[in-house]
């Protein structure tokens, strides 16, 4: 058996083993207090050479068969004249990783074009902020709290290595530069754990005044206004020349502030999505047009919230998701007499029906979403299942118990997110 055949067999065995594991990505940050001038110069030069190599590959007729063993590249400088520049720092496997990323980008564009989408060609980059590290213990090594990169003798201290479990199988990684900070995003495969849910089902209503309202009465509101110091920097930018040095310094300060704000949003989103998916097995939500909200009436409120990120993550990470149609009248429909109250406006925060039923508007909508979502699940099971009638009905009863439909009174619940 040749060496290439052995590599193929081991690759197949690895992919088969990874199917029984769950994939997770851990973000580790470089400790800036341990970054000397030599290490900082190395990292800056590394990303600079990665940009040269990427643009050189993109400029060739066949980027897929590009020779990654070269030690110098031909680029065009500011005067648009060809220059030959050496590749002194970037390692061989990092070069292969850049070529693989370029190949995957070409494949994704080709797939979109086949589906009928209008796509252009890849453009040359002024900055490369991510380098693919394809092989653990070769392209990069993790020992204790330190990182060792291929082709560099010194080590880098990392923060956050404690979050990777001992049973994790470490595979590839990405070296990322973001707002003058450096990160290592490590891909790991960990054993799957059986989830134990506290409750079985919930309906969630998305809104503007109250971000999330649960069918059991819980309410959460997420607003992340722009800080005053960032607003001051935005006002200062109006008076700066476009390509001046002061303008670039201001852009660097603003990018740090924007990054901090986005990290706060991401942290809150991850916490609330984790809370929902771990507590409830069946999650019913309505397919809201959040993009339309942003474009028409509630642009600022949606922009300062995390509604789109929460909905996107729930669609991906929920154990059992029931997506109610966008045009289902969850706010207008009465759960008692099943009549629609079309006179209800956005200002009315309490649902009132002619039959005498009164309820908080958002909680009422969440309960209707839960009822409709459970109905959709039962009809879908009835269509797809090939079991006898007796077994089918028994399974439906086991999934939808009376305790799931009888909901508690509305109330409030505070979840500490940070």
Distance between the termini: 56 Å
Roughly how many Å is the radius of gyration?
A: 27 Å
Please state the overall shape, judged from the principal axes of the Cα atoms.
globular
Count all strands and give the number.
Answer: 16
- Structural domains: how many: 2
Description:
- Mean pLDDT is 85; it is low at 385-418.
- This protein is 40% helix and 21% strand.
- It contains 11 helices and 16 strands.
- α2 packs across α3, α4 runs antiparallel to α5 (245-279) and α5 (245-279) packs across α8.
- The chain is of the alpha+beta class and 418 residues long.
- A hairpin with a 2-residue loop joins β8 (169-178) and β9 (181-191).
- The protein folds into 2 domains: 19-191, no CATH class; 199-405, no CATH class.
- The strands form 4 sheets. A 7-stranded antiparallel sheet has the order 4-8-9-1-7-6-5. The protein has a 5-stranded mixed sheet with strand order 12-11-10-13-14.
List the helices and strands and how they pair.
Layout: H1 3-18, E1 21-30, H2 37-58, E2 72-76, E3 82-86, H3 92-114, E4 130-133, E5 140-143, E6 146-149, E7 156-159, E8 169-178, E9 181-191, E10 199-206, E11 212-214, E12 219-220, H4 228-237, H5 245-279, E13 280-286, H6 290-295, H7 299-303, H8 307-317, E14 320-324, E15 350-352, E16 358-360, H9 361-384, H10 389-399, H11 402-405
Parallel strand pairs: 10-13, 13-14
Antiparallel strand pairs: 1-7, 1-9, 2-3, 4-8, 5-6, 6-7, 8-9, 10-11, 11-12, 15-16
Helix pairs in contact: 2-3, 4-5, 5-8
